[in-house]
Amino acid sequence: MHAVNTPISRRGRKLRQSGFSLVITLSMLVLLTTVSVGLLGLASISLRTSGASEHRRIAQANARLALCLAIGALQKHAGDDRRVTGDAALLDASPDSETADGIAEPHWTGVWRSTRGDGSSWYEHGSNAGGTLDRRWQEDWAAEEEVEAWLVSGNEEEGARLEPMSGGGRDFIELVSEEGAGGVAANRVTVPRVALGKANEELGGYAWWVGDLGTKANLATPDRFAAQNLDAGGGEGWRRVMMAQDAEHPEGPLAAEIRPLLVDRKTLELAADGEQAAGFHDFTTGSAGVLSNTLEGGLKRDLSVYLASDGRVAPKSAGGELLAGLQDSDNLVGPANTTDAEARGISFARHRQRLVSPKFGLLRSWADIGTGASFRAPSLTQINPKLEPRPGEMADSYDDSNPKPTAIKEMDQTALMPVLSEASIYYSISYYDRGPGQTNRYGLRLHLYPRVVLWNPYNAKLQVNPTAICLFVNGSKTFELELSDGKREVFGMTLGRSGAQRGSLLFSLDGVTMGPGQSLVFSPSGAQAYQNARPSGNFLSAGQVPDVNRFFHLDSQTHGPGFLTHVLPVQGDAVRWTSGGKSLTDGGVPSLPIQFREVALSQAYGSEFQFQADDYRMLWKNSGSAGGWIDADFDKMPMLQFVSCALQYGDNDELPVVWSERMPVPVEQTGASKPDGLFQAPDRRTRDGFRLRWFDEHASNRLGSGSLSGTAHFENAPLANWNVRSTYSLRSPWENLSDSVPAFFGAYTRDLFDDAVSWNGMQPVASSGGAAGFPFGQPIEGTGSYILFDVPRSGTGIVSPGMFQHVKMSEFIWHPSYAFGNSLVDPRIGREGTELERRSLNNRSNGGWNRYTIGWADDGRSDDQDKWAFYARNLLQNVVSDRPGDEQSVSYDLSFELNHNFWDRYFLSAGDSNRWARFARDPLANPLPNGRLQAVKGSAGPLEDCIGDLHLAAGRLMVDGAFNINSTRKQAWKAMLLSTRDTTSGGRAAFPRLLNPPGSDGSAATPGSEDSWTGFRSLSDEEADELAEAIVTEVKTRGPFLSLGDFVNRRLRDDPTGDKGALQAAIDRTSINRAYQQAQPLNNSKELPNYYHRDNIADPTRFSQTLQPATKAWGMPGHLTQADLLQVLGPALSARSDTFLIRAYGESRDGKGDVQGRAWCEATVQRVPQPLDPDGLGLNPAEPDSGRNFGRRFVTVAFRWLSKEEI
Question: Among 289, 267, 266, 276, which residue's Cα sits nearest to residue 213?
């Protein structure tokens, strides 16, 4: 304060001083009041802040408690390999609806056991009630009742059972909000709040939810081969098409450089342009799968190690643990060997495919083909089937024609050879003038026009060896010859071999190189005499189109008079061989021949020509290097293919055909020394032979089928329900059999007279490679190349198990052509099992091959009631019998058994010793061909010791982005389906069955186009969307799937799920194959009629018409199949999830029960291969069946706190 030197009075100064003090005092009081109030406010704020911090701390502690409880629940319920997971939408009351009807909380994660409660399998093997059975359906298994746990809070206490159907209540906590999940209300997740506190005082609470990341498509999984070009010469780039190396966002492809940056949802939202596109429940940036066997427990085995071996991988043991090895002789169906059978609780000695199962060596030998097959233009040499010793007691039917049979019991080596799709013969009769003065001036000449069609069904050039064929047709035909003098004489033919084998005509086929898919017609190259003694000279080649002047001929000049017999009525016990003193036994006639027709002889003419042929079959054999083989050599040759079209397996006595008197055939003249010069084609009625059934059978066969006339019995799907590469084709007890002549059955057929099979109707098309045919119709209907199967390539290897669809898994005609990966019900067996029940005598006796199912004749056409069945069993090398311990079933659901045995027990690293070594040194720089396989830590041993080990590899590997087949998310499935979208032009997702096919996807969807046989299918975004929706419908209808095999296979139950696997059913729900169903529909609307067969056949229509697929063209390369999808998707699929997102909530409450603090957190938890309590090998839990087994370890790989706005 400043003092002013102004005089003042004392009073005045005193008054002024008193006023100032008052002001100061009042001011100080105001200041003190203000300060006091401020201090009081600060104290209150401090007290409130201290209280809020404590509540927040308590809320976070409760959230962490919830997180720990969630991880504990995961470990308890999902740690065991034998558990599968999926969300509650699996219980959708309307599976084909977009929403989960009847489910209030569709995003809750459920856990199901893949076994019964006691650890035993739901599958029973070797049952007399029908082979393999799935007891879930006999015991009324229901997903909503069998769920082991729903992984949400409130289910912690023993016996607690919260259900997602009932939905959220007032005390439910929102852990995924509508805003946090892209603004979609259906994406919300609420779970029960669990209260915490003391008696009568609630102090807080928690909630938690486990989200299943495996049911989402992992968009961060990189395509490790993205930089490789599909057109690269070595084929390495094709790894991007052979399997789903990544997943593609449905809204558009993600650039390869972006994927490494996708580390969480925020980065995914940025890359996907928004939260909704990021799809909270559809996509993820972090998931991986353990290579575990959900069906039986334990880790899968790396089959690539066996494929690269010498045929034997030794067992592995340590610490009292023993893991069975693998070798070529182990079975692919049923238990592999005795050790495996013991481990699975199955009697190996009593298993009914023990002897007839295909062997693992089949896969290894098929894989070996790739070592010599270049990617761009594979050129391979024919590989003949393996032979096996003929059983000692086998009489080989009646003619000893198969002393070197193709292996049935030892099928451990693949074959690579063409398919014999047709062998037939026409004939004509000409005359030649012997000159005046001859007793019978006009000699008769028989012209034979054989044609054999070989078809290379492979996507590779094939060098076919010289081969030989026996065409056993009607060799006892009789014809009536009208002469110029008006007389009619009857002659009987004697073709080929004599006696019971009359009609056996032998020919030699030229070695030839066949292009991929090429079908070649072999025919005579000129006019030459047929050679009985040295049939190697009866040479057929594919270098020319059949011509009326290219034939084999028989006449008295070259063969003597024995090829024709003049037949006259019997007088007494003798046959009169002369007429009017002029012998007609020298192959000639006295008057000019005019015309002829086939006739039947009455009993008055004796028995020699009363019946036509003892058999109808073709035997195709490997003649090897024996260029000049003779008749006796043929029977000793190794068998390549055996096709029987005989009702009676060689015990035939078929009545002859009679031509109309009004339609005789003119007899042309040829030269005495020059047998050609013919002008007219052989008459269609002269044709005899066998062929594969056509997609569209001609009218004569359809309408001339006796009791089955006019029915759909000729409508079959040859690739779906028959094995076009089989060695053994014969009538089985499970056919739709006509009661007419000829008997129609099976995949091969004979023909009634029809223009479709006339000389002109069957005329092949000239091509650069020779005369071209069409296996499934008239040659004119073909496109030139018909590729069905592929072989491995040196540059690509076998990346996906789906590639095994190309392996011929059986030598029997009654198994499917594409056995592995597909799962269609066998119409011979039915839906509920994998074999026919054996309680009835018909199915039990001799494995079903007995007199009741095969039949017998009461009119003398069979020697005894068992003779036909005896012949049939012998043709199968007596593998079906009633000998104790040898009871075998050769008709069983091969696809189901293969899938059931493989998908859960094996995986493919697709490597070899060099690649495994490089991967072990630097997994990121040297990825395996299956780029999803990533190295992880584990207790199995050092990486370099585990990689390349059949047993240990899965202990150090995981699948990046493994996708759970129980996913109900359409967008996630679509992302997986679009994985190959960026590999082909046009932005379509490719599903090529064939590697580097000659065709494209351009017109593959159009039946009859060239691409439909040589290309591949690809899906547009719209088709992928349609298919993804259909897959989700099937998943909801059938799920949860307890294993990969359960997903691949059809259900063993009597409803539509028993008809086909889930993926095939999904495909068939869509329009993808509709063009094939419209172009080649198969009438499966009703069963064929039952009728009485005169030959005592108990059931002549056992092949179910209604269980066949909807199109005869099923399986063409342009027709998308389940196995095609699995070839791409298979390596990425899993039956469970191993990565989970946990959201946890905690709260704190005051004494009044009001919430004072809230906290949210999120953690990503990963199951790893390492068991909590490892066995001696470090691979599996030490006591898998004990109550203390919590399986494999879960580890936390990410954690963060969330704000309320982030949930």
Answer: 289
User: Of 952, 909, 943, whose CA–CA distance to 929 is shortest?
Assistant: 909
Residue in this structure with the two tokens 């997986």, named with its chain if needed: 976
- Residue 1024 · residue 82 · CB < 8 Å: no
Amino acid identity at 883: R
Residue 330: CB atoms within 10 A of its CB come to 20
Tokens at residue 369, please? 């083909």
Contact 216, 287 (CB under 8 A): yes
Q: How far is C-alpha 708 from the chain's CA centre?
A: 32
| Residues 801 and 885: beta-carbon distance below 8 Å | no
Task: Label the pairing between strands 512-514 and 504-509.
Answer: unpaired
* Distance, CA of 623 to CA of 1131 (rounded, Å): 42
Task: State the pLDDT at residue 1165.
Answer: 98
Query: End-to-end CA distance of the chain, in Å?
Result: 63
Cα–Cα distance measured from residue 693 to residue 711, given in angstroms and rounded to the nearest whole number: 16
Residue 260: Cβ-neighbour burial (10 angstroms; 0-12, 13-18, 19+): exposed
> pTM higher than 0.90, yes or no?
yes
Specify whether the CB–CB gap between 519 and 454 falls below 8 A.
yes
Pick from 480, 777, 455: nearest CA to 599: 480
Question: From CA 290, how far away is CA 1194, in angstroms rounded?
Answer: 11
CA angle 517, 522, 527 (to 5 degrees): 160
Give Cβ neighbours of residue 381 (< 8 Å, ≥ 6 apart).
Answer: 462, 463, 465
> What's the average model confidence in pLDDT over 1049-1062?
97
Contact 453, 522 (CB under 8 A): yes
Distance CA 350, CA 480 (A): 59
- Tell me the C-alpha distance between 850 and 856, whole Å: 10
Q: Are the beta carbons of 651 and 860 closer than 8 angstroms?
A: no
Count H helices and E strands in the chain, helices first.
Answer: 25, 56
d(CA 982, CA 1031): 22
| Closest alpha carbon to 390 in 371, 407, 378 | 407
Cβ atoms within 10 Å of 982's Cβ, excluding its own: 18
Question: What band does 600 get if pLDDT is binned at 50, 70 and 90?
Answer: confident
**Under 8 Å between Cβ of 353 and 779:** no
- Burial track 1136-1160 (b if 16+ CB lie within 10 A, e otherwise): bbbbbbbbbbbbbbeeeeeebbbbb
Of how many residues is the chain composed?
A: 1207
Higher pLDDT, 650 or 1114: 1114
State pLDDT tens for residues 460-476: 999 999 999 999 998 88
| Mean pLDDT (whole number) for 279-294 | 96
What's the burial of 379, exposed, middle or buried (CB within 10 Å: 0-12/13-18/19+)?
middle
Sort strands 527-529 and 551-555 into parallel, antiparallel or unpaired: parallel
The alpha-carbon radius of gyration of the chain (Å, integer) is 39
Q: How large is the average pLDDT for residues 448-471?
A: 97
Per DSSP bridges, beta strands 379-381 and 461-464 are parallel
Strands (E), 904-1026: 906-907, 933-935, 957-960, 963-964, 989-991, 1017-1019
Contact between 1032 and 1038 (Cβ < 8 Å)? no
| CA pair distance 670, 1062, nearest whole angstrom | 64
How many other C-beta atoms can be found within 10 angstroms of the C-beta atom of residue 400? Answer: 12
CA distances from 388 to 391, 392, 640 (A): 9, 12, 13
Is 929:910 a contact under the CB 8 Å cutoff? Answer: yes
Q: How many angstroms separate the CA atoms of 819 and 893, rounded?
A: 9
pLDDT above 80 (res 126): no
* pLDDT band (50, 70, 90) for residue 569: low
Q: Could you read off the pLDDT of 1042-1053 as tens digits, one per residue? A: 999 999 999 999
C-beta atoms surrounding 218 within 10 Å = 29
pLDDT band at 274 (very low <50, low <70, confident <90, very high): low
